[in-house]
Amino acid sequence: MQETETNKQPGDSTLKRGSLGDGARALLTVAAAIIVIFGLREARDLLVPIMMACFLAIISYSLTDILRRYLRFPHWLAVTFTVIVDCGVIFGIISLIKFLAADMRSTLQGDLVTRFAEKFNQVMAWIDQLGMGEEARKLVESPQDIINPQQLLSISQAITGQVLSFMSVCTLVLVLMTFLLGEAPLFRRNFRNLPNSVQGKNEMIAALRGVQRYLFIKTIASACTGGLAWWLCAAMDVPFAFLWGFVAYVLNYIPTIGSIVAAIPPVLMALLLGSWGDAFIVTGGYVAINFAIGNGIEPLFLGRQFGIATSVVLLSVLLWGWIWGPLGMLIAVPITVLVKLALKNSPDLSWVALIIDDTTTDTGTSPPKKD
Description:
Elements: H1 2-18, H2 22-42, H3 44-69, H4 75-108, H5 112-129, H6 133-139, H7 149-182, H8 184-192, H9 198-235, H10 241-251, H11 257-273, H12 276-302, H13 310-324, H14 326-330, H15 332-344, H16 350-356
């Protein structure tokens, strides 16, 4: 009897270890990932302000650190000064949104509708010469079917109304950010006491510094993009020039997709209110601006420090945009960097980090030389 039990024990342990095959394990991993993704989506009302506070704290901590190290500020005073600066930036953004809404109302009350009606009549006359006027009027009867001033005014009023709700969210974000900055030394000390390997800690510190550098340089590049887009639209007499510059600034945080989306409205405006030549110039200007900054200035300062494949970046933008909305698209790259680091340090999921990695050089696929 003892011999039988002894013989069963190794088999039982082998059965337990081998009972979950690679296919079942992969299936469970995918199922767990789906559950986590849907959980993040359902909890976005709670998680979005927390993520905003975390990333704002990561960006702002550079200022706090400079005030402490070089100006010898006490930690509480450095945090207070940093929060005041952040409040000024957020107040400036809110004031800018109000200004854009007022600019939209004033532009609509000007000659925009008249200019568009003249352009519409010219296009319809050209379509009549081609013998397709009746079919075209079945689709669009009047200029108001394309640009409705009342709808645009209601949009501007809705934007103004959203400012109050935005301010309430910003208040929560600033409170959370203040506590995160205030307890940053505590988090750093606890992080050093973790029982992880030195290499893992160094990788985490390097990733956080990389996120800081990425957001800082991306902010400067986005400001340059927005300023040049504003100048281009104003030079070409495109309505809402300042609005399109602000849109270009915000959407430049979204890799690849953002710059394309930001160029569509001003190009359509130039085409509807100007000529094909105007639309071509605006299109060429946006291409030149985004090519110079996106493929020249940003890689010069950022390089390829994150090591994520371009296709993975685009997919992450779509995924985090679906999970957390516009904020998810804005911070998709930093989140993906941190997720990649977590996967890399996971024994079971490190292969996922290797698949999405783009830091490898030549793999040497040529056949080995024979002696």
